[in-house]
Amino acid sequence: MLVRFGSTDMLYLRDIEGLSGTDRTLRMPARGHRKMARRGHTLPHSNLTLVVIHGPTADVRSHVAPLRSLKRYRLVCRAQSEVFSERAIRRVGAVLWESSTGLRPNWRLLRALAGGAPIVGYSADLETGASERSRNMGFLSHLVAPLNPVDVAHQIAVSAPGDMATRWERACAPLTEYLGQVAVFSEMTRRVGASLAPGPVAEAIVDRAAAWLPAPSWSVVATDLVGAPALLASTQLPRGLERSVISFGAKVTRTGRGVGTRDLAGDDGREFAGPSAAAIAMPLQCRGLTIGAVVGVDACIVSSRVPELPDSVRSALSLLFEPAALALDNASRMQRTQTLTVTDDLTQLFNSRYLSEVLHREGRRSVRTRRPLSLLFIDLDGFKEFNNTYGHQCGSRALVEAGAVIRNCVRATDVVARFGGDEFSVVLPDTGSGRAMAVADRVRTRLASHRFLASEGFNCRLTASAGVATLPELVPTVDRLLQAADDAMYRVKAQGKDGIQLADAVA
Which residue, 21, 28, 151, 384, is most buried by CB atoms nearer than 10 A? Predict the structure, then answer.
């Protein structure tokens, strides 16, 4: 009997995730596969019959509906209980037997019906062992219903007569157009997966977005290490729109919904007033969370209405950016993990572990380039009495303020670390002893003039003692640099505190 269906044809693409045990089925219109059939990419022959032999309770319509996209091929469905002769059906291209019923076929009749065509088992269930069961029953291979036209075409192609080269060419042909459809996704996955740093991942996202979509400027907005929205990457973003893009992307991140605006600068009020531009943003979502947004900006168009994306385009973009969002989230998590391992929990400066790493790295560079390397070792004077007077909580807040003061006294390329307790260290690359002493004196002076805990109504004063050591001017190796600076600091302590001292030269 010939099975006919309605006008709605759907193609089912299955993605079985073995780790999660979930079955994700993407339904797409079958007209794309009709196009493949017209080009001759789907089946190697025309006027063939596809025979589906199903169980007594099988939902035949849903199982074979995708096969109707194979234009000019006859589809015949028979129940397993029916008896048929080898003359019942002519020019069989493939026979598909539902193996989930457990009923073994009459192989004599089945082979007579197939006439050399492939005989394949199929089932609609996804339990473990379904494929093995089909092969144990004697079938060539196993397919999962709803039956995919590409898989069926492959079975016919590999079983058709011809030499090995011809058969291999036919077997690969049905995959060509399908692979072309998914090339965009694989390219995105490859680009964003090439780095474990958020910056390069975001750059890959904007590059791909600019190549695929019409807006001239694309940006990625996501939270930085301190949880504030930041512009991770952008391409051809007009000057003056950075803050507006960050604000717009942050709104999309909070809501989790893609939106458009015809006036980017005025979207959140005139606080970020700047050049007018139309913009649209899509959220970056993974693991059920929105981690950022992709913002497209067109400053050349003055839009009379708010731009909107059709639901179909919105769904396509969500699918397109899914691997990018996952890669960006993984990179951000790794960056936060790495930051936590080298950051002091209290002051958010670097910790002693990272200080040691930097000293040895900069020490090797100093020896290689013959450039000086200096180290400051700073200790707050009388901090134990400060804790006893104001309490340990106030003492902790004072340490945070002291770290900020020291950080503001040095260059961005210098490394400030909390060594431990009330001790701080500053690594000064390309700095001789003279300049290092000037930096140490600036730190000491600003600490002495700073009003600690002023925001809490106190007017506390703290002074500091600092030792300075320089490689190779005063010490021959980086291993002795920290000890020399520490010794110089203790000499200041012995002399009355609140001062700086240059380390003695060590042979």
Answer: 151
